[in-house]
């Protein structure tokens, strides 16, 4: 009998958010890898989240009010996996601004929205960090391959 396959952290994040009806788009490093209010607080409550980079003794109550008072949050899940919630993504804007250009991929058997390749390239150019410049070369090559193959 086959052993059940453990979910990856990304599959777990996506499953928890989807089960709670949270609309989201995957961006950044996870999107790159995939290329080659209260509902959110409830969903996040099922994960072992801490504020990334904050001292362990810092008290933080993750609830709808806390989420409403902030725009961007950086968490760690299980003390290891980075998970960012961004209300605004420079230089592109809000969730609604990204939505028309998303791509859909299957993660854990669920259709999941991922930032569009052109938007991801735009972000990498904007950030300009060494790791982004390296990624940019790969993403632009992927774009050229897609264009040659007649894909979007």
What would you say this structure looks like, in words?
- The protein is α+β, with helices and mostly antiparallel strands and 152 residues long.
- It has one domain.
- The chain is 44% helix and 16% strand.
- The protein contains seven helices and five strands.
- The chain has helices spanning 9-19, 28-35, 38-45, 64-69, 95-98, 117-127, 130-148, and strands at residues 49-51, 72-77, 81-86, 103-107, 110-114.
- The strands form two sheets. It has a three-stranded antiparallel sheet, with no helix packed on it. Strands 4-5 form a two-stranded antiparallel ribbon.
- A hairpin with a 2-residue loop joins strand 4 (103-107) and strand 5.
- Helix 6 (117-127) runs antiparallel to helix 7.
- The longest helix has 19 residues, at 130-148.
- The model has no long low-confidence stretch (mean pLDDT 84).
